[in-house]
Amino acid sequence: MKFKVFNSYEELSAYSAELVAGVVREKEDAVLGLATGSSPLGLYEELIKLYDDGNLDFSKVKSINLDEYVGLDGTHNQSYRYFMDLNLFNHINIDKNNTHVPDGVAEDLQKGAEKYDELIESMGGVDVQILGIGPNGHIGFNEPAEKLNLNTHVADLTQETIKANARFFASESDVPTQAVTMGMGPIMKARKVILIASGENKAWAVKSLIDDVITTNIPATLLKLHTDVTVLLDRSAASQLDEK
Ligand code: GLP
Questions:
Q1: Which of 33, 110, 200, 218 could make an SS bond with 236 (beta carbons 3.0 to 4.6 A apart)?
Q2: Structural domain count of the chain
Q3: What is the pLDDT along the chain (244 residues), one digit of tens a residue?
Q4: Is residue 239 part of a domain?
């Protein structure tokens, strides 16, 4: 696992965009595993800039998102489909038919989850997986637990996650209590992983990434078993690491 600490979130974002751009330049039909939340926002802005400047072509790129809230359809302004359209897809030349976000309003969520795994498989897996990290160490919505899931599944959100995400909703009680999330399987199988963390509230979770323990109670620690993970941090997120 490689760690890189940046003086500012802007520098971190520009660097992360160059990593993603490198993958796309090498493989024009790359599969991008995408995340929502505030962490990758700067990355998406930088990718849009690269596209605007004629330095990156998304016409053949495919994307697969990590997760979606149960009960929110794509028109809801807090749904992750809406987020992706608003913050990235509407601004680049990606074919929307090639962008995928789990269906949070499927009549049969389990069936939808199984289909999502088939879809990931049919796309040949993920070339580069973007991840944020929850303050409790979750990735996607794979929450701390005794057991983790390999496959896409419906996850119950922890109280801590509901609290952390309440800032995007009118009140805490409006935050969905469940989500459909990609399991650990496709994340661990991604050819490259880029994890972005910024802010003091991520410092504990980030520190657990350098400790030598791997535990399902901090799902991100499983990434220590992956051979190509780059963790990009700003100073605050790195504040509990010994060497800065
Ligand atoms: C959310 C998402 C995660 C995201 C995390 C951190 O709950 N499901 O994929 O990485 O929380 O979000 P943020 O980047 O806004 O701190």
A1: 200
A2: 1
A3: 999 999 999 999 999 999 999 999 999 999 999 999 999 999 999 999 999 999 999 999 999 999 999 999 999 999 999 999 999 999 999 999 999 999 999 999 999 999 999 999 999 999 999 999 999 999 999 999 999 999 999 999 999 999 989 999 999 999 999 999 999 999 999 999 999 999 999 999 999 999 889 999 999 999 999 999 999 999 999 999 976 4
A4: no
- Centre of ligand 1 to C-alpha 144, Å, is 14
Q: Which entry of 136, 142, 165, 234 is annotated as an active-site residue?
A: 136
Kindly state if the Cβ of 69 falls inside 6 Å of ligand 1: no
Tally the residues of the chain.
Answer: 244
Q: What is the pTM of this model?
A: 0.96
Task: Tell me whether residue 228 is in a domain.
Answer: yes
Domain, as residue range, for 157: 2-234
